[in-house]
């Protein structure tokens, strides 16, 4: 059973975690949905977002997200009401923004807050904002802040069993009376971003008849996810020679050195999309235009899934099962190693064998197969 509404700042006894469908005396009229903070996780959450809007069709649903992630959902029917996290800084300006966010959330008088992140921060904010029902997974010490705790479905002794993220979010959906949202990822394009990308490719000299191969060589997770730029360059050169491909290298902010290293190690020309880097909205428009997306296990990979772009993804230290979906044309290139998957941001060994044993030949073969079937 859910707890009665409690005022922010009040501590009460924990309610038991639930796996049954929550009951509402009245359907919520104002709902707050807290989105994940990683690019790929937001894309993986889109089936849940779509299902939540279907579950509460008459509610005013507000999305809370990091501001830089807004272009991910721009163009969708879900962004009529958005709030953005204030910076996590101790400056006077940041503290003022944090206070203003809390004031705005309190004024909305949410009937229901749903938290996709597992963070204590998300539960604390929803608690202080006074949301009447606060639903999230009971983990990371935040149980007292939730009125309706949902059992973690993949908890095992010593950690968590890998579970596809779409299925993980679906457990929250089940508690809310939603049907399983499925794992069909959804992204939307905007005319402005489409036109900006087409203009940039035309300016750089990409010909319409050339197969477009997009390289996304970075990974915000850490250096351990990044395949060697020299190997990316060798694969790109072979695709130019074999398929007359146009190679567009699109790094995220801070990943420019990786992209420049690929360009500098290529014999064939390439198109470096920096100065500035593409926005996330423009990156969607680039990837939907591509004949092949080549990269590491990182956010843009999920763009390709949502937009049905063929993909070749190099996997190293991360577990594939966390991000599995049942759709999309993707070839994953990896090797089994005794020490993996370790999920470490930086490899502690002298040689990161999970990456060094992924050869240029392996990745080139996978790319050729994808290009041959898509072009």
From TrEMBL:
Q: Which Pfam families match?
A: Glyco_transf_9
Enzyme class (EC, first level):
transferase
By its UniProt entry, which Gene3D superfamilies does this protein fall under? Glycogen Phosphorylase B
| The EC number(s) this enzyme carries | 2.4.99.24
Keywords attached to this Swiss-Prot or TrEMBL record, sorted alphabetically, are: Glycosyltransferase, Transferase
Q: Which CDD domains match?
A: GT9_LPS_heptosyltransferase (cd03789)
Question: Catalysed reaction(s)?
Answer: an L-alpha-D-Hep-(1->5)-[alpha-Kdo-(2->4)]-alpha-Kdo-(2->6)-lipid A + ADP-L-glycero-beta-D-manno-heptose = an L-alpha-D-Hep-(1->3)-L-alpha-D-Hep-(1->5)-[alpha-Kdo-(2->4)]-alpha-Kdo-(2->6)-lipid A + ADP + H(+)
State the family named in the UniProt similarity comment for this chain. Belongs to the glycosyltransferase 9 family.
- What name does this protein carry? lipopolysaccharide heptosyltransferase II
């Amino acid at each position: 059973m859910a707890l009665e509404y409690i005022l922010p700042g009040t501590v009460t006894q924990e309610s038991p975690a639930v796996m049954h469908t929550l009951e509402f005396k009245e359907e919520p009229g104002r709902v707050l949905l807290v989105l994940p903070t990683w690019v790929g996780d937001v894309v993986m959450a889109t089936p849940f977002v779509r299902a939540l809007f279907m579950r509460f069709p008459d509610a005013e649903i507000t999305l809370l997200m990091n501001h830089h992630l807004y272009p991910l959902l721009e163009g969708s029917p879900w962004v009529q009401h958005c709030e953005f996290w204030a910076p996590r800084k101790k400056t006077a300006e940041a503290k003022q923004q944090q206070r203003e966010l809390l004031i705005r959330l309190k004024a909305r008088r949410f009937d229901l807050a749903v938290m996709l992140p597992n963070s204590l921060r998300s539960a604390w904010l929803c608690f202080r904002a006074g949301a009447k029902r606060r639903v999230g997974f009971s983990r990371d010490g935040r149980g007292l802040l939730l009125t309706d705790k949902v059992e973690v479905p993949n908890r095992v002794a010593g950690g968590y069993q890998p579970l596809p993220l779409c299925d993980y979010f679906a457990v929250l959906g089940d508690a809310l009376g939603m049907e399983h949202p499925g794992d069909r990822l959804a992204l939307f394009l905007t005319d402005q971003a489409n036109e900006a990308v087409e203009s940039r490719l035309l300016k750089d000299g990409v010909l319409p008849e050339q197969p477009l191969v997009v390289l996304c060589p970075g990974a915000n997770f850490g250096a351990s996810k990044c395949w060697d730029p020299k190997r990316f360059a060798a694969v790109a050169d072979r695709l130019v020679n074999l398929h007359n491909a146009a190679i567009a290298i699109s790094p995220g902010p801070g990943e420019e050195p990786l992209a420049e290293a690929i360009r500098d190690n290529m014999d064939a020309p390439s198109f470096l999309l920096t100065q500035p880097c593409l926005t996330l909205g423009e990156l969607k428009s680039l990837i939907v235009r591509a004949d092949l997306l080549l990269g590491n296990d990182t956010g843009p990979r999920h763009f390709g899934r949502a937009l049905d772009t063929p993909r070749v993804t190099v996997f190293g230290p991360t577990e594939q099962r966390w991000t599995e979906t049942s759709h999309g044309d993707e070839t994953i290139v990896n090797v089994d190693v005794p020490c993996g998957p370790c999920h470490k941001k930086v490899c502690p060994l002298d040689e990161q064998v999970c990456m060094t044993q992924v050869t240029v030949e392996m990745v080139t073969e996978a790319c050729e197969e994808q290009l041959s079937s898509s072009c």
